[in-house]
Batch of 3 targets.
Target 1
Amino acid sequence: MNKRRETFMRLLKMLVSDFKGWLVISLIAIILSALAGVAGSLFIQRLIDHYIIPLTKATDPNFGPLLFALGIMAVIFYVGVMATVVYSQIMAVIGQRIQESIRDQMFEKMETLPLRFFDQNDYGNIMSRYTNDVDTLMQLITQSFPQFIVALFNVTFALAAMLVLSPVLTLISLAIFATSIVIVRWLTAHSAKYFRAQQASIGKLNAFVEEMLNGERVIKVFSHEKEVQVDFEVHNENLRNDARYANGFATMLFPIMGNMGNLLYVLIAVLGGGLAIMHPTLLTLGTIAAFLQLSRSFSQPIAQISQQLNAIVQAMAGAGRIFQLLDEPAEDDQGTTTLVKDGESWYWQLADTSLPRVPVKGDICFSHVNFTYPQTKAGLHDITFEAKAGEKIALVGETGAGKTTTTNMLNRFYDIDSGQITYDGIDIKTIRKRDLRHALAIVLQDTHLFTGTIRDNIRYGEPNADDSAVISAAELARATDFIDELPAEYDTVITGDGDALSSGQRQMMAIARAAIVDPPVMILDEATSNIDTRTERLVQAGMDALMANRTTFVIAHRLSTVFNADLILVIDNGRIVERGTHEELLKLHGRYFELYQGLA
Amino acid sequence: MLRTLLSSVREYRWQTIITPLMVVGESAIEVLLPFLMAAIIDQGIQPGNMSVIIHVGIILLLMSVVSLTLGAGASWFSSQAAAGFSKNLRHDLFNQIQTFSFQNLDHFATSSLVTRLTTDITNIQTAYQMLIRIAVRAPSLLLFSIIMAFLVSAQAGWLFVCVIPILATGLFWIVKKSRPLFRQVFRGYDQLNRVVRENLRGIRVVKTYGQQAAEIDKFHRSAHNIAQVFSHAQRIVANNMPLMQFVINTTMLILSWMGAKLIVGHQLQVGQFVSLFTYSMSILFSLNMFAMIFSQLSVSQASAERVVEVLTTKPDIVAKTNAIEDVADGSIEFDHVTFSYPGTDDDQLKNVNLRIKAGAVVGIIGETGTSKTTLVSLIPRLYDVTSGVVRVGGQDVRNYELKTLRDQVAMVLQNTILFSGTIRENLKWGDAEATDEQLNEVLQQAQAKDFVDALPDGLDTNLEQTGQNVSGGQRQRLTIARALLKHPKILILDNATSATDSQTEARIRQAFKTDLPNVTKLMITQRVASIIDADQIIIMKRGGIEAVGTHEELMQTNQWYQQLYQAQQKQSGGGDHE
């Protein structure tokens, strides 16, 4: 509850700080519009008591004053209409501006977050913050907020007008009003309870359907359709039950409120009529007529207020999730050493510019590196090794042994707990992350491409690269054959999921993308999965070309890679258990020997 | 379309019928209230007649209680009907998907089927509830109010008849103008989602290449585009309220002037005059309801179309009547088989002939795109041949009961899919009645027993929570064990040991040989070593079979095979997969 209040205040602050002037104008417009509405109801009393009744008694009715009064009313009415135009237009635009600015803030923030965040959060969940949560928030700003305030003013002004017209009838209205509030609260409490249950049921059904449809082919192969249908029915029935209560209570609100209005209408007519007959001085006909009209503009806003209150509470949950993302701590980067280019060569520039620049060579050194993943407790223990510029380091070991984790330390996707990693003798913690990563490239097993042309994907890391650079990178990656066969060659647009490309072709794209950046250090993850022999040979040739003249870390799956490595690190359970060249390790008859037998 | 959807109403029919009836009743009473109230004013208050007030008052009170009951009842029943209808619809849709063949499934993306089962049906539910309640209330309130207005005063009636088209035009303009914009907004959302999704999946690439600024720029453009179009749409929609207010106020002014004239001319009484104000409000609000209904229904129309598309898709593989329920043996025969995926004229298999004896071990090898999976998919009838016949146990596969055929032809698919739940529950997909002894036996054969035993909860290990502890190769072996539990006559492994190391794979093959001598075994693989001992090796090329023979024969006759073998010997391909 307190949390919700905090979120609300923060949202309000955001609104007010950016749109103070507009909000003040809107508020004034809302008040004017509500006043015009009440004036209309009050006018009915004057119309009947001051104009129509006297006119019926007059022998020579003069309609002049009535025409004048109608003219004044027209002015009041149309000012009210203009006011409504003003605030509804302003709120529509403000809602969109806020929506855009929140989305931008979220995305800018997201780009700075550490990988840990992406590991720990479900993608669907993050995506829904950009769409569902922002949408609900915008609804709140463009509709719920103004309607809530309009309704609030309408009720207040209507109440004031009623008090002026007749305190007695006001008392009746208040009694009905109190009953309505009780009913509304009861209904909304019930429907809210079932709406929450419904949300949970939808979630469960969704997860079930998602899993089953993804495994639909297995269901068919096992003729398991009947069993799955039975399980589905359980989720389906639960959802029906929650939905019928949730909607049942929620939709009952409006007819009940409407009919409470009718009841009030009837009570005013009957009791007001009785009162008018017994004490004509207390109540005029015009007052009753005006009251009848007011009773309408009294009961509708109450239903609206309660409905908008619900919407506001719901939107606060979404706003909470948005703020949570905005409050995530960004990837920290205290690095001050930067990468500078002088002619064709790259140098490390230390923060203290009086110190000499260090030429970038690609010497990497791990010393006593320890690391633990927060959730799984897996990690690295005391990793120490050195890679001189241009050397090939092969990492071998079983899945989950820590090969990828080791490379993740180097580009600082994760930060080590203790120990030190140096690049050309400089502690990588002191290097600005952008620059550190610019001095490394990585080719992962599952290749991620972005929606856009083949050309833009190849020069992703160097957006200003010219065509000849793109083509030579593609040549290095042995990708020219397949690119030339594409309908628009380098201008062929691929979608992010790259369905049009085979996994081998995607890997060639990743190699070309790394080649164009041409960094002194490379991290390669050799592919194992089902690519056919010819494509595999091409991919390997590309990888070999990429490794030439660079310090390379290879997560190795091929014997030829291991043969040619300057240093093989056998990793098991996050530790280096054996190290050396192929021949040296074979002689040990240890872990490497076992793995080698598997390979052969 | 409507008929297909409505056939899912079934047991919720009476709630569906009673709702509009109650709505009509409620509207009728609501419209009568101002009429009787006018009587109180004109025959009770003005002449000072207390008994009229009391009599009419009691009737009015009773009527408003009845109207309240009807209104609340309609809401309640409409919710029951809509929730029930959507349940039936989900049921029908899900069952329909279960009857689909692989071909049908290829046609719909999984994510799109999920959306249809959830979001789309929720939209339809909302629309349905609206249709039986508000879509009945709006026209009946409008109609009754106009009738009553005419009864009270023909002149006032004509005033309303004139005002209605003005307001209707305005509302229509708003809906018409904003609809295409909203469609544009949805497209904008697709784009925005794509950028976010690509950045979530590819965050490592973005960070590696330091392209955060460029990605942020991409996102800004999408977000800005949405904000622009959406603002435009919202500003059009925002005209709704002032328009209503304008029409109501103008009507009030004209009505005041007209009423005063009529009352003075003794053609109208004060009470009737007051009731006309109420009718004008009812008429205008019901028109606003129309606008809302119209825009809501157009949203759900797309959903309805998407659901009906699935419901009306005919499953293209169904068993015959009097289908055979017993498979004689594990022999397989392809007799002049040609196959192409529907909608393509590219023959995946062309005039394929093949005979496999029961109990044989068959290896299938070839480059990607050479229809290896297609070939074996025809055996459990996952697809139907375009021409020719596939026979299992001497019978055309189309003559079998589908369940019989697929129980006897166990196929381990390329992607290892296990379901949430324990290892035991997953294995039991193969045989619900299996004892632990039987489970352990198949685990042993699939070389999965050791690692399952090593898990803290053994067979009761929950796969969902221990995704980290079970590697890809181990999951593959679980899917093999699951298939073995069916005790099939034919076992097909489609690259099912790709993530398993060679030694383990060799042990699996050995277990098959000793424990399952009578089961016909087909293995698709990339490794020659896996199929070197096979009775038959099938080399696939584009469009069909290139060669069939034993390892020794192929080494003599097939150059591609020789080269592959030598290349793999040199590289000893694969290995360290786990």
Target 2
Amino acid sequence: MSVQEILADENELTHLLGAQQAVVLSTRVRLARNLEGFPFPGWAKPAHRKEIAERCIEALTQLPRFRKSHVFKMGDLPDLDRAVLVERHLVSKELASGKSGAAVISRDQTCSVMVNEEDHLRIQVVKAGWHLRGTWNIAEQLDDAIGATLGIAFSDQLGFLTACPTNVGTGLRASAMVHLPGLCLAGHIEKVTRALSQDGLAVRGWLGEGTEAAGNIFQISNQQTLGLSEDAILRHLGGWVKTLVDQEWNARRKVAQEEGERFVDRLSRSLGLLRHARLLTSAESMNMLSHLRLACDMGCLPEERRHVVDRLMIEGQPAHVQARQGAELDSDGRDRRRATAVREALRDFPEVGSPTA
Amino acid sequence: MANPLKCSVCDAVATVHLTQIVQGKVTKVDFCEACAAKGGAGDAAVFKLADAVNAVTPAPAITCPQCGFTDVEFRRRGRLGCPSCWQVFGVALGGLLTKVQHEIQHVGRAPAGTIPVGQLRHRLLAAQQELTAAIAAEDYETAAKLRDEVARITTQLDTL
């Protein structure tokens, strides 16, 4: 079982032609669960952690959803492979940094379960585009299937018991990865972020907690997990994402109208630069690709090219670039390899035209 | 969600972490930037502050019989030791829970094959309120449906 297969296999986020949408890149649902009668991973002795991992992996790999799944034990993986999984959001940085964690990942990479992260089980489901109910339904089914074979720690008063008080109750974290170049260009992003935080939603960068919003991409998620039903949590997030999408479109149209030719020039320059650069840093390519995504959304480039942009955003990350090369590269080497991949992918892109959306 | 260590003085997020080894005895202490600056991080003064903090660290008042986790450990890590800790530290956690979650009663799903008591109680309360409102609005058709629902949930909860 190798991480190379993860890169090569057709999967939800980089290969699903047509599933990609303007503004919302992906929808994610995560459930924190623990086994009854075992200490949480952070307090468990190595022998306990090993037993927990064995039980969980055995139960998970028997589920239909995880037929022919990838099973990765963090202790067995080289640094680069673990970094690829983190960049794909298939495992967290915390899981990758420890030795006793493991991950079971479905063949299509939609479902992944982290074992021995902060909690015994972190069930995750991700879908390209905005599909909150569909994503939730899969997570719910998976949760029921897991609960039917493993005794899950639960109390009537506090719900699902987790290591950290910030997850107790539903253990549910639902999130949307949103691309907000319009609000960023219009200078409204701080105002929007503040409004979301005041209403109990967390706003983070592309790679989660403590990361910058490279490429104008933000992750919006609920914070409260206790005292609200799953349905209420999803409705709250869903309502805000809808508002955000509307506001983003208003901002895009306004900027495009006000800037006129300059708007098209800006997007066109990004395409030119990406097509001809010989060295591309991660941050630079993310910001230029953000312009191309905006161009696809607004009809300046054909919409069916959007999935190429999404794939380049994921595959342009440092560990991905090195894994493709099959070797560790220094900073210049990565920038050179990234530029080559981007150049090749964009070779037959048409010119940027005027917005139609 | 990653939970950062807390400052040993003021409970803010700790960004300065000190380890002192004196005659083989290891002492660890964490400070936020402000408290570290007060103590003069990086020189001898901060270790005096560390000594003072460690001297007042209370002995554990509560210990989980299941896993040996203590309240002192919880203050250090911000996470619990095992599912039973929730029962053991329940009262002590009450204040913290209202601070981070605003609520203290689960109203969501339950594990597969069990009755979602929290969800039922939540629905019961809502249905009772809706019933009162329906009666006040003289919407007797809705009220009748709600009365049946209230009765059904009450029976379900009583049989537990």
Target 3
Amino acid sequence: MTGTPLLVVDDIEVVYQQAILALRGLSLSVDAGQAVTLLGANGAGKSTALKAVSNLLRAERGRVTRGRVLFEGQDIGRLDTADLVEAGVIQVLEGRHCFPQLTVEENLISGAVSRRLRGRALRAALDRVYDLFPRLVPKRGINAGYTSGGEQQMLAIGRALMARPRLIALDEPSMGLAPLVVEEIFDILHRLRDEEGISLLIAEQNAAVALRHADHAYIVENGRAVVDGPAADIAARPDVRDLYFGLSASSERTPHAPGAPVLTESP
Amino acid sequence: MTDLTLSQPRQGLPAWAGRLPVALLLAVAFGVVPFVGDQYLFDAILVPFLALSLAGVGLNLLTGYAGQVSLGSAAFMAVGAFASYNFILRIEGLPLLAGLALGGVTAAAVGLVFGLPSLRLKGFYLAVSTLAAQFFVQWALTKFDWFSNGNASGVITAPPLTVLGISFDSSVGRYLFSLIVVALLTLAAWRLTRSEIGRSFIAVRDRDVAASSLGISVLRVKLLAFAVSSFIVGVAGALWAFAYLRTVEPAGFDLDRSFQILFIVIIGGLASIRGAFLGAGFIVIFPLILSRLGQALLGDTFDSGVLENAQKIVVGGLIIAFLIAEPAGLSALVARLTRRNLN
């Protein structure tokens, strides 16, 4: 699964509202056709990293103050979101963010805005999404606000696919979803990677699922990537197991508070 | 705000059935009303109703569909009216409709400028910044008498309503003229809400970050909403001035008028074209009915001042009652009632 890096995040620093330092020199890279996951506690900077990649920081008055983001060797830090989507980078936001007053199908169509699809081409793109997410078919005429959380997550991913991206950044695709639905969604992400060669950058709390499905993993702490390696190796590390699976090899323990020391003696 | 847009045609009924009531309404408005109505009906009820409905449609595009609150509608109406007046006055032989359109374009340009704060501000803060339009426009129109062709108090008089040699300068004529303009612009607005632009309005209203993550330019969509909305509101202002009042001064487009239009949109139903007409009907026609009713029933016992104040209390109470019954406005109320009757 190695190739030329598609996306390189090079030592970026991000500041919100000119006061809050969210990323302090984070670096990572995603190879073409690879699924990379970012793990870390709440507030570690995973979402900020994704937003820096897809240039959505401005909406929250954040700014990249140092470092570069390269997509295919090109600095994309100055591109606005619309140009970025056209270049092939799109984000699926945390909490899904479907347009509740538009129907499922209209939500999908709105994802194709950057491609200005019409008629048969639009139909074909829609059919491809329905093919991947058959659960959306019976809901196509229903307002997205009335669909379930799992369906909305599928819709959000499907909507991103309409832009025909080469890299999708997903922020917590498992959030608030039942384990079976999470599996279903990750299986589809798998298919996207294998069948369409779409690269994935996934920020996740659910380390177990993410590590099972990703090729490579980064662990983010305090705005930096502190550990990285092949997903299988990361999953096998005892300190990571302890911190992110909430149990150590020997005994059950309560989940760690963010920022707490990694390894402590059980009482 | 449930059945805002693109609601599916009811099951079992063909698509045209949903449009039948509108077609019937238009047929009556064009084919029956002009022959049976009297001067009072046209001049005092239908023409202001049409002008305010159109303003409601315009504001609804901005506030209902695109989610940008504006308290500057009366200012954009004033710009439309005074700009049309000046274009017709100063360009020899300019057709009336071209004058109206240019007035609308001017209002759109002004709306665009006062829409710029929306790129940073949301909700109440944006509403407050649109107040600037309200005060600035009224001030400019009063301060510089060029706008009113040298009239010291800023009063303008309507040009003759003549299109292609046909004069619309009677009560029925003014009604028909308003009806044609309102029908055409409403149709255009309705088409817009069902287009890609309409969908991006809703996308920006509901989830602006998600919209921008898909490559929808939030900036462009918001400014477009301000421009299109102000165009329609501007033409409505010109109708208000030319077809209804005939002589108008800047003070006629004050903050009260802006509130009136905002209430039309809220009472009628946000993001509903039909709602603008229902809301305008409620605001324009209801007080008249109430006044007549009050005069007829209680005119002998109470003097007219008491009755007038009592009306305001009743109208206020009814607004609260309606909104409690259906927070999404009269449009949703009507939708619920018709659905129940069909089932």
